[in-house]
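Allow me, if you will, to draw on your knowledge of protein folds for a short while. I am sending you one protein, given as its amino acid sequence and as whole-number tokens for its backbone shapes. Kindly check, if you would, that the fold set down in the tokens agrees with what the sequence suggests. The record follows directly beneath this note:
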Amino acid sequence: MPTVSSRALAAIPALPLGLFVAIVLAVVVHPVAGFVLGVVIGAALFFWVLNGAVGPALRALGAFPLDEGSEPRLESLVESICASHGIAEPILYVVESSAIDAAVVGKPDDTHLIVTRGVLTKLERLEIEAVIARQMTLFGNGVSAATTLTSPALGPVAAGLRKRLLNDRRLVRADFDAVGVTRYPPALASAFEKVIESARISHNARTDHLWMIGSGIDSVQPEMRERVDALREL
């Protein structure tokens, strides 16, 4: 997850647009009016990017809300982990893909956990628990900024920002943090080994960085075998 704040990312498109509007209107209309309207428009874009990134991110992921009671095993595991670690329960979503993957988007007070159908059908209970724990360790740890990076308002700048800001070492650290929650490294390692033998999630440049595994195409995530070997050494 990126170390930069979501506010800094939201300012990237907002400041240039506000400045451009201010200059144009200052020349065409009036300097004061140009300045005021530039500030208003820049601020509006800033808050739109900052607060409106969750919905577009979920749509780009292809995520749909899980009906309550439809996946009792998943719901029970999420509830248990949240209760034992003082974490607010996320809203659960599913992506209809046979790939084994999971993602988390949102803000500190509005978190959404997404799993693929492959997680629910191909993994055993302990493996699902490990995947959930791994994603939950990311709550509040750059999730807002990672979500903001999917905003269409960032345009082509987003690709460069993802490469610059996302660190594969932090992603591996999240694997280790998950083990700190479950106290059972083999479960996450086993889930990752099943990933190696399965198809990957479809590539989407805007959202690939949100996934625990990703498509493998220009991904920021480390190689799976390296992650498995690191977990096996614990």
Summary: The chain has two domains: 6-51, 54-232.
